[in-house]
Here is the input.
Amino acid sequence: MLVGIGAVLLLVVVVLVFFNLQPSKTAPVQLTVWGFEKSDVIGGFMGGYSQLHPNVGISYKQVSEDNYENTLLGALASGQGPDVFPAHNRGLTKNLAVLSPATASQFSQSQVDNLFPAEVGQDFALTAADTAGKQVYALPFYFDTLSLIYNKDLFDQGGVANPPATWEEFQTDISKLRNISAGGQIIKAGAAIGGSQKTIGNAVDILNALMLQNGVAMTSGKYATFASQQGIGAFTFYLQFANPTSNYYTWNENQTKDFDSFSAGNTAMVFGYNSDIQKIKSKSPFLRLGVSPLPQVNPANAVNYADYWGMAVSKQSRNPDWAWDFIISMTTQPRIAEQYSSITGQPPALRELISQKVNDPTLGIFAKQALTARSWNKPDENLVDGIFNDAIVSALGNQSATREILNRAQAQVTQLMNRQ
Here is the structure.
């Protein structure tokens, strides 16, 4: 997100002067930047870049994350869209036609691979229909990954000394942490897992992470391919935790929303991102929570799950080169990126800073996970997530039909991939 980016811009002058770069003297340029933060958080600071480039004026507009995509596309359709705006790492494919990539001379895929975790190149260096090679369509300010968040008091009470490193250990811990009445009512949940987005905010991400850890190829060419034997196995594994007949039953759709239940001390483990931790702390500031890496199928070949925003340039921008110059300056200078991470509390995206943060008590887990994080390019992120969520809901009602349900979801995603 663009949290605190205005303060970061103050460093532009210092950093670029340090590198002996001089302001450009060309025709006047005006750039509009969209972000999710209140304008008073960054008001007055966007002039930092313009101080180095007196010909470039930058204005900022706050937009809501709610219904953001429709707001953006509506503005672009009316010709009133921004020059620079946030782009989600799994949502770029659908909107590729409205983006202006960096020219090869400005920023190349090799530079992305050198500066950022491998997944950034997979997500943001793409091939458009009318181009032969990959071009860079966005760059990130930060890099977040899915983690396990646990209640230290409930772990102590359950006799669990350490958070689980593997899913096998996770299953074992469930039986120690859950409390189910003789009538089958969940009094305390071992973990929020197995349900739909109705009760688990990151349900689809958890399921997708399990699939990737099990070696599932989510797509191949123009086809979705996640309903393989490994995909069905991951789907069944996920669902078992909401199956009353399972030895690891610990959740159902009658539970309170996962983070609310966790904050109230009624759930021992939830899955969330670094950005979720502050939300949990705000609900229950005295809760003794711990954060650990995402459990793995094979710790020797770790696969984590990425979730982050980058900044992209509109194809409608009258000054795409300047817009890209702005993004590159903000995202690739280590001193600026370090200050951004310090202000926002978000894990850094630059490899150089990741190596420095691996032992950080707050961000170390996310720094370590960044280099093994994966995701996948969805043809329409909202619709695909809806398809997966519907599959979870259907399977919860009929767990004997998981293969059929997942095959149907695969066909629906394939249809999205091939729609004109």
Q: What stands out?
A: Confidence is low (pLDDT under 50) at residues 1-24. Residues 213 and 303 are 5 Å apart (CA to CA).
